[in-house]
Every structure is written in C-alpha cells, then in structure tokens.
Amino acid sequence: MDLLTSVDPTSSSSSDPYHPSFFELAASDQLRDLIKPAARYILAVLAQRNPRHLIRIVNHFDEVYHLVMLGVERHYLSTWGASFAENFYGLKRRRRPALQTTRAQSSSASTSVAIARAEALTRREVRLSLLFAVGLPYVQAKLHDFWERNGGGVDGLDGDDDGLFGDEGQPGGRSRLMEEAPASRRERLHRALLRLFKTSYPYAGALYQLWLLSYNVGYLFDKTPYWRPWFWLMRVDVRRMGGGDGPRRPVLPKRMPPLSQPLRLLSTLLRLSPRLVFESLKYALPLSIFFFKFLEWWYGADNPRRRRGRGSGSGSGAAGGDGDGSGSGPLFGPPSVLQPHPRGILTHWSDRKEAGKAWKHPKVATHLASSSSSEDGEEDAQQTPPPPYTPTATTTGEGGRKLIHNSCPLCGTTPIANPALLPSGYVFCYTCAHDYVERHARCPVTLVPIHEGVDGLRKVLG
C-alpha cells in the first residue's frame, strides 16, 4: 500500500526525500510484532469452538505461523522488494550503491529502468532477507519458550533459595533431591548446560537489544544508513516508494483465458490463487482493523443504541424505549410499572385499619367522599370501597392516580426520610417499610409478596 506517493522528490526541505524517517521504520517493525499475537488469539478462540481440527495447529502454532509468513514474505520480497510490513507502509528495500554522492542521489531519484534493475534485490538478498525476517524470529521464539519451560525467570530452582512455593523447612527442595540422586556424567553435563543457559539467556537478550538500539540511534542521527545490523551485512537499505515503483512482475497475466475455455481459466486461477491471497492481505489488514474497531464500538457503552436513555431530548422524554425503531432509544425498554392493587394501602380502607393506628392517612391524596361514606368499623370484604383518593398532583386518567414526587405512601412525609426501595418499585421511608414488611411480608401498595422479608429492602443513596 503506497501511502507516501504524495512525497515531492523535488522539494528542497530534505536532501533525500526517499529516505524514510525513524518512525516509519519503527511503525513497520511494530506491525510485524503485533501480527503474531493477534493471529494466536484468533486461532485460540476458534479452537475453543472446533478443537477437533484446530487443536493441533494451536499446539504447533510457531511452526505453522512461520511457514505461512515464509510464503507471505517470499511473495512480497520477490514481487515488491519489501517485506509485508514495509510494503504496507509504502517502503521498499534496495541494493545500496557502492558510490553514494549528491549526483548519484539525484540520478537515483529518476525512474530509469537501468537504475531500477541495479537496485532490485537478487536471489541472494531475498534469501538472506527471509532468513532474518522469518528464521531469526522463529529461533528467538523457540529459545524463549525453552527458557520459560525450564524455569527461566523463576527464582529458587537452582538450589540456592527456597522452592517455588517457599518451603522454608526444605531449602532447595527439588534441586537438592536431584543433586543427592546418583547421576551420570552426561546428566550432570546436561544440568550444567541447562543452568548456564538459564543464567546467560537474559544477558544475551539484553546485549542483543542494545545492539539493535545502537543501530536505531545511529540511524536516527544519520550516522548510518542501515536500520538493522543484518542490513549492513547484506548491503541493503530501506527507501520510500516513488510514483514509478511497482511490482517486479505483474500480479495477474496480461491476458486471461476467455470464458469459453472454463478448464483453462480455472487452472489459471488456481495457479494464481496463492499470489492473489498474498496480495489481498495488505488490503484485508486495514479492513480487519476497521471491522474489529466497529465491533468494539457496537458492543461498547458509546453505542447510542445501548444507552438507557435517548440521545436527544425530542419525543416523550428521556425514558425512551417505546420501540419506535428510530434507534435513539435503549435496546430494551423499561419494565412496566406495577399499578396499585384495589385493596392496597392507597385505595382500600380496611388495609389501613388492619395495619393499626400506626398507619396514618397518607398526605399524598385527599378524600373527596362525603361523610356518608362507609364507616370505619366495617370489615366486610365485599363492601364497596370508598371513592378513591385524589392526589394533590395531577391525575393520570379515569380512576387512576399519581403519587406526589418524593412522598412516602404510608406516612405521607415529604421528602421521604431515609428512602428504601421495595422489589415492587415503590419507595417508602425506611422505618415505615421495615415495620410494614416485617408484619405482612408484602408491598403495601401493590400487595406483591416479598419472600425475602426485610432483606428485600434496598436503601436508596444519593
């Protein structure tokens, strides 16, 4: 993917406009390091769904991955003269000319065929590039895996400290027992070499990273044209792609077999299928990144479809959830409100009498009935209840009422003192709700049973 075709080679801001910056090379190197763990994670997830066929690939992931990368890198090195990550960032490799002068640089900026052929990678450079791009990471991965499997980075396995789990009474438990057992010379040599490897591997890795760092710093300050030490061995440097740079060989033939010859066309497509798959990777990579970012947003909290309220203030308010299909409301609407029971504390006098004198007339509603209404002493359940209470707030409709905001339905205190929530969804004063639920084990408004008793109360904070 040529991302830098807009670079003007005639610009005077840089002596060599095709010289890539340190950050371009670092980005390509980081991309190469991120592909392997991403592929391992995807394969591990797929293996959980189909372990019968994929578990063997997971167990030999390093071998399978580096074999695939061998084919990918070979295709891009032989076709584009760059590795997969370098080609993704619009970079290429070239054979560094023996004479590097200002005149030579100006001539190399041209797109003459002779210079392009002279700078193209030969089979030797391609093979060496494959060795360092695929073979070296594979050896490093196997060495690190061997170091970890043999206790690398874990103290206490050499017999000097306590065991892995801190056996204070048995210093050096496992190693000390192994040393007491009789061992042949070959086994002792093997243990000595293993101990030497575990001790020296971290230092060797640190020296290797310092070696790479020295080349990075030298390249950053234009002290060396080589980004990596093996580039100096191959006499190859990395350059930006120009407008005239293209594949050394066409991806597709100039003439494809006609549709009148289906067998020949099919054989040609099968022969070109590996090349087409490898070429599609540089387009599939950004598409996959976009797809995963889309899934992350879709299942994340930033998606407005998953918010509990509407994103805009239009419509019937912030409650949303009316299922109008506009996409601005929540994915699932709010649960339906439990209406007061006809024999509940708000609508029936007998419940209030059964509760005792402690339950006062709630101040959330006013009684509009005349004095000729039913007497307080009547206990008949079939008696017609008195006219419903009319709240001081606006009514919801015929025969319906709405509680005053922040008022206790039991005692009528406004605001509610130490509010507590019942499973039915109504809020009361904590003392009122606790006493009522402890006696009746139900909601005083909806008469919904509360099997947990007072444990079903939830204090409302805020």
From TrEMBL:
Keywords (A to Z) from UniProt: Membrane, Metal-binding, Peroxisome, Protein transport, Transmembrane, Transmembrane helix, Transport, Zinc, Zinc-finger
Matches recorded under SUPFAM superfamilies: RING/U-box
Bilayer topology: Multi-pass membrane protein
Any one Gene Ontology molecular-function term assigned to this protein's record: zinc ion binding
Residue ranges, annotated region (Disordered): 158-181, 306-337, 357-400
Gene Ontology terms: cellular component: peroxisomal importomer complex; peroxisomal membrane
Family, similarity comment: Belongs to the pex2/pex10/pex12 family.
Name by which UniProt lists this protein: Peroxisome assembly protein 12
Taxonomic source organism: Pseudozyma flocculosa
